[in-house]
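S1.2 Input.
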Amino acid sequence: MLQQAPISTTIRRHIDTLRSSDLDALLDRHIFGREPRCRGNCEFQVMIGSQSYHRCEICGGIEERSPAQRYFGADGHERLIPRYTVDKTSIQCVIDAIGRMSKTIQSCYTLNICCYCPVGASMTVWLNFGPTPRQIALAALRAVDVVDSEGYVETV
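S1.3 Output.
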């Protein structure tokens, strides 16, 4: 009997429909190379009823464990993703990470961020004070080819 390969569906979503937390997850995965699941050691914090809460020593995430997970273990937990798109100071680490990448990616990022500059504005002044954290995040994701030229990202 033939076995059918599992079907994975990919969904194309436009970047304008993504929440800031989705952009943060994409930045964490594709700019910084972090896995979505953390395998760090979780330290016990508090027990409420039959649920225990543990804090990860690596990412700082809080994991809720059921009795079954306490006995049989768990395969990591969802990583606590930093909020890169909150303000200019938190997005600065993305700009620094782009600066450490290849010259091609740096050039693509610069061209992508310049696309957001309003007509008639001084480019130098605008690059220092104008782009929002969301625009910086989108330009970085376009530079590393996560977002295509039409503004779509493929999610599984």
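S1.4 Remarks. The chain has two domains: 11-35+82-155, 37-78.
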